[in-house]
């Protein structure tokens, strides 16, 4: 069942991909999606390049969304393959993001991947420091936003080209 | 708990002093004997008295009881071997008091043996001999003129070549006094062994009225430290330990009692329908198969507006628990659903003016497949949400007892899981405390996530009833693209949204576009928990922030945590 649903959801996602996102879908491995995401313009994760206005700016982040065998009863797992300085993304090789509907106890089968994608995008624009996985980054964000912005942008330049 | 540890040979009953006195013992066999006369101790002015206050070595305190200090008439035990008898002569005067010099009164006179410790084999013979006489104690001395403390108990000079078994074989204590005292007493024993006329100061004794047939003999009393000594450190420790264990047991018992009362209380409230464990976020319940089978199955059918298509019921649905069963119209054999059956619908689900069934969905929210009219079988939950039976059954059996769409419980009102655990009690209390604290949360709390049966169902269900009455039948109509997102989830979202901007900024059109209702509930707190504490923290935070939308996935914590903690929880239930 999960295969069928994932396929269906992929179809929906293709039809209605959130802006600035691209899904790389491998037919042979449908439980692992690779998502390419541009840092939203309003966020600190947009690359401050001075290119032509028509060209999308923004850091380029690679994400992986993997579906557990129990999907849709268990939530998909989101991990940032590109390092990102963000209170809600773990600063390790997993780069896991796990909050809101991504938490097992809050996930509900009717939820869809596209909602997950939107959640990710929203969180890039507005991190949620109150539910941080990285307390130190959250602290920066809350108490010392300038510093946070600076580091975040540096990381974008360094990792998210 | 009174546990007295007293090794056989501890010096705790050591002799503190020994007194030697002279006693007048009436001859029990004398013809003129007055039966009432008892042995009396004679005064120091007319007889021998010899107190020994120091330099007493207790060699064995065997068979000495507290408060039962040994005393008795002194005598020198007999030897067997000629060699010993011969050797004894150097230390024991020929006329020293022997057992035969003591008046026999059916063994009623207590005896104390008195012997010089001059050679191990002869000492063994002494002991052998006294064992036959039932003595209270034996007093020994190493012959000589020394006034020093006799050697300590473990000294080699007290060895009898038997590895100390003599102490065990003797059923009486043995005390050693200093050599000089021993010599003096032995000397006196030879003076006080014959007739009253032969003892020192015999005239004085007769003057005070002693009978000529009386025996005047020496006797000894041994004062041990039994009465005065404080309990030894051992006993003290044992007592303290005992008290401690008592306190622990009492506390444990009390906590068990309290916890049991709380469990029973929670069970009662669950059965009364005041509390729904899963809706409250206390425990993730699953639906037992027998309940599942009672949920109605229908064939999905699209009813074009104004059409007369009945929703057909291919197989009579099993009696829906706590719902009135559909009635069968006599002529058509078609089931019409009683109007009252929707009385358990959540308040928030339909405004009173809404006349169409609120929860008709064209798509299964789990597999996202569209239902096919007149073909697909659907299972309907009490909240009227419909799913493929295959999809929803898996979910309800293995994941949750709440509707995936609206979180209303599928289980009947008073359903109570077999086991109410302490963890459940604790969570429930925690949640209740939080709710009473955060009144704002309580106010905005979606009603349907409380126990469905305990709450009044005014407008919503009334509206349903009216709507149903107008429609006259229940249909699953293909809905206009309208938002079917249940209110409670919506509220959960906005509730979270008041706290964090992202969700407020979240585009809602997605949820509206998809009738399956993709709710976004973000800002609920992280995380991929790295540590136990973190998880606990996140859980409580989520509980606090989300009110009721949070449900623990974990199996009960009773079985988690380090072993010592689990042990302590067993002893002190309620311990965190
Ligand atoms: Zn389905
Ligand atoms: Zn529902």
UniProtKB/TrEMBL annotation, chain A:
SUPFAM superfamilies: UBC-like (SSF54495)
EC number: 2.3.2.23
Molecular-function GO term, any one: ubiquitin conjugating enzyme activity
UBC core domain ranges (all copies): 1-161
Transferase is among the record's keywords: yes
InterPro entries: Ub_conjugating_enzyme (IPR050113), UBC (IPR000608), UBQ-conjugating_enzyme/RWD (IPR016135)
Record keywords: ATP-binding, Nucleotide-binding, Transferase, Ubl conjugation pathway
SMART domains referenced in this protein's UniProt entry, alphabetically: UBCc (SM00212)
Class of enzymatic activity (EC top level): transferase
Classification via PROSITE patterns: UBC_2
PANTHER family linked: UBIQUITIN-CONJUGATING ENZYME E2
Protein name: E2 ubiquitin-conjugating enzyme
Organism: Lophiostoma macrostomum CBS 122681
Automatic annotation (TrEMBL), chain B:
PROSITE patterns according to UniProt: ZF_RING_2
Molecular function GO terms recorded: ubiquitin protein ligase activity; zinc ion binding
Cellular component GO terms held in the UniProt record: cytoplasm
Compositionally biased residues, Polar residues: 492-501
Segment forming the signal sequence: none
Pfam families: zf-RING_2 (PF13639)
Composition bias, Low complexity: 448-464
Keywords recorded for this protein, A-Z: Membrane, Metal-binding, Transmembrane, Transmembrane helix, Zinc, Zinc-finger
UniProt key word Signal: no
Regions crossing the membrane: 233-258
Domain of life: Eukaryota
RING-type domain span: 364-407
Disordered: annotated segments: 435-540
Protein name stated in the entry: RING-type domain-containing protein
Highest classification ranks of the organism: Eukaryota, Fungi, Dikarya, Ascomycota, Pezizomycotina
């Amino acid at each position: 069942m999960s295969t069928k649903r994932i396929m269906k959801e992929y179809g929906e996602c293709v039809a209605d991909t959130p802006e600035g996102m691209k899904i790389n879908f491998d037919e042979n491995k449908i439980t692992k999606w690779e998502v390419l995401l541009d840092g939203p313009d309003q966020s600190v994760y947009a690359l401050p390049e001075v290119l032509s206005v028509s060209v999308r700016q923004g850091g380029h982040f690679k994400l992986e969304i993997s579906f557990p065998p129990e999907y849709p009863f268990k939530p998909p797992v989101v991990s940032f393959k590109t390092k990102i300085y963000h209170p809600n993304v773990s600063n390790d090789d997993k780069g896991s993001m796990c909050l809101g509907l991504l938490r097992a106890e809050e996930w509900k089968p009717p939820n869809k991947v596209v909602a997950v994608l939107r959640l990710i995008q929203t969180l890039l624009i507005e991190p949620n420091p109150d539910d941080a996985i990285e307390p130190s980054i959250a602290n920066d964000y809350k108490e010392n936003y300038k510093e946070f912005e600076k580091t975040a942008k540096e990381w974008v330049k360094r990792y998210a080209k | 708990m009174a546990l007295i540890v007293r090794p056989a040979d501890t010096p705790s009953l050591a002799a503190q002093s020994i007194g030697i006195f002279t006693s007048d013992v009436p001859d029990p066999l004398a013809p003129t004997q007055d039966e009432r006369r008892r042995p009396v101790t004679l005064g120091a002015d007319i007889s021998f008295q010899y107190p020994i206050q120091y330099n007493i070595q207790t060699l064995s305190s065997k068979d000495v009881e507290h408060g039962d200090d040994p005393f008795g008439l002194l005598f020198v035990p007999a030897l067997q071997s000629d060699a010993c008898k011969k050797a004894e002569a150097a230390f024991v005067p020929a006329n020293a008091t022997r057992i035969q010099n003591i008046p026999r009164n059916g063994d009623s006179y207590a005896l104390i043996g008195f012997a010089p410790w001059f050679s191990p084999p002869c000492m063994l013979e002494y002991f052998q001999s006294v064992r036959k006489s039932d003595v209270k104690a034996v007093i020994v001395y190493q012959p000589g003129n020394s006034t020093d403390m006799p050697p300590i108990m473990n000294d080699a000079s007290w060895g009898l070549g038997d590895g100390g078994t003599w102490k065990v074989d003797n059923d009486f204590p043995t005390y050693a006094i200093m050599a000089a005292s021993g010599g003096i007493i032995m000397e006196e024993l030879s003076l006080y062994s014959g007739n009253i006329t032969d003892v020192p100061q015999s005239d004085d004794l007769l003057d005070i009225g002693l009978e000529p047939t009386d025996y005047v003999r020496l006797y000894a009393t041994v004062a041990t430290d039994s009465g005065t000594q404080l309990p030894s450190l051992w006993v003290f420790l044992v007592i303290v330990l005992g008290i401690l264990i008592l306190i622990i047991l009492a506390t444990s018992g009390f906590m068990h009692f309290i916890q049991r009362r709380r469990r029973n209380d929670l069970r009662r409230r669950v059965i009364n329908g005041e509390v729904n464990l899963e809706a409250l976020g206390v425990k993730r319940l699953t639906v037992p198969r027998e309940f599942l089978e009672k949920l109605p199955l229908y064939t999905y059918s699209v009813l074009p507006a104004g059409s007369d298509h009945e929703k057909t019921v291919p197989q009579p649905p099993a009696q829906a628990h706590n719902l009135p069963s559909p009635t069968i119209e006599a002529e058509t054999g078609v089931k019409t659903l009683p109007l009252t059956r929707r009385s358990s619908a959540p308040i928030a689900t339909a405004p009173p003016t809404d006349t169409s069934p609120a929860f008709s969905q064209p798509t299964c929210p789990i597999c996202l497949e569209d239902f096919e009219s007149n073909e697909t079988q659907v299972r309907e939950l009490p909240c009227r949400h419909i799913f493929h039976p295959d999809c929803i059954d898996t979910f309800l059996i293995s994941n949750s007892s709440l509707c995936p769409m609206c979180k209303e419980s599928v289980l009947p009102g008073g359903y109570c899981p077999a086991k109410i655990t302490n963890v459940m009690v604790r969570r429930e209390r925690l949640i209740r405390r939080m709710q009473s604290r955060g009144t704002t949360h309580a106010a905005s709390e979606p009603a349907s996530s409380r126990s469905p049966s305990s709450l009044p169902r005014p407008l919503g269900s009334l509206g349903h009833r009216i709507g149903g009455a107008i429609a006259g039948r229940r249909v699953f109509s293909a809905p206009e693209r309208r938002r079917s997102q249940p209110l409670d989830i919506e509220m959960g979202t906005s509730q979270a949204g008041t706290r964090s901007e992202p969700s407020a900024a979240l585009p809602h059109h997605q949820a509206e576009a998809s009738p399956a209702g993709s709710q976004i509930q973000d800002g609920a707190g992280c995380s991929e928990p790295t540590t136990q504490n973190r998880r606990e923290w996140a859980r409580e935070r989520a509980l606090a922030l989300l009110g009721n939308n949070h449900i623990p996935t974990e199996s009960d914590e009773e079985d988690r945590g380090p072993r010592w903690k689990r042990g302590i929880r067993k002893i002190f239930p309620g311990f965190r």
